[in-house]
Amino acid sequence: MIKLINLSLILSLFFSLITSNLVAQQNMANVYGRRTQSLNGKWDAIVDLYDQGRKNQIYLNKKAENKTDFYEYAFENGLRLNVPSDWNSQMPELKYYEGTIWYGRKFDVLKESNERLFLYFAAVNYRCRIYLNGQEIAQHEGGFTPFQIEITDAAKENDNFLAVEVNNSRQVDAIPAMAFDWWNYGGITRDVFLVSTPKVFIDDYFVQLDKTKADKITAKVKLSEKIANSSVTIEIPELQLKQTLKTDAQGEVKTSFLSREIKRWSPTAPKLYNVKISTRDDQIEEEIGFRNIWVKGEDIFLNDEAIFLKSISFHEEIPQRKGRAFSQADAVMLLSEAKA
What we know:
With 340 residues, this protein is mainly β. It has 2 domains: 22-198, Sandwich (Jelly Rolls); 202-291, Immunoglobulin-like. Helix content is 9%, strand content 37%. It is built from 2 helices and 22 strands. Strands 3-2-4-9-6-7 form a 6-stranded antiparallel β-sheet, with no helix packed on it. A hairpin with a 6-residue loop joins β11 and β12. The N and C termini lie far apart (62 Å).
């Protein structure tokens, strides 16, 4: 029994090490504010009813070269599905479908020698495997979480083939489980695009008001690489605040600003400030509201005033279209209904 347990443990560790580098990466900050190339639109699709696609390597997108070649699956001249969208609302035949559907499309991209290239998915429901030019490059699980994969070396300038294996099957020990109170949508349900960055880019940051002080802004910036003595500039033009700092050995900078001119954000006065963060090769701009929020006893305080929070819980779907919500217009519609 002990030997079997040890063997099982060894095998599980072995396979986890093999697949660990296929797990999608944590997202860089402010993806939508960067230079992107959309891959939204009509994608070719194959319904893999019996889960034979991976076994038959349909992600290779093979073509028959002579009359004796036989391939059971083909992306061309078949089903086409909108991305982003769920598959359930696009065809009556797919309304109740639970299982695997393969998405495929080709793309070209201009590659620069001084840049990196990432493939970004805002959401795929629920489990997926990503293949580029015949190679599996990532796996992801979670229907509401964005993920990215660096494809700087894997992508070509022309005639790239991208395949996405999507599965929304219910499982006893997973999400979605066998019983739930929402529609089990499947598909590439949010945006897909390519993101171009410099070799070293601004990977993460926060610029926020101190938890207790109304005149102090704290900031932290993290670069994509652990490079020391690299210059990072943080600027809030309207408040006439600007600092240039050098990164530490972790590629990070931390600082704070003092200003008595800060107008704090609130629901009744949602003031936003333009914040600029830049390095030698990268720059990000974002609109940020500064506010204090803290808890004392049973009370929640916003900007030193106790507030009463009211909320509503609803699923991310549009009743008018009877499908998964995915666009800014959908978000406005849902929030407008929540406020009514």
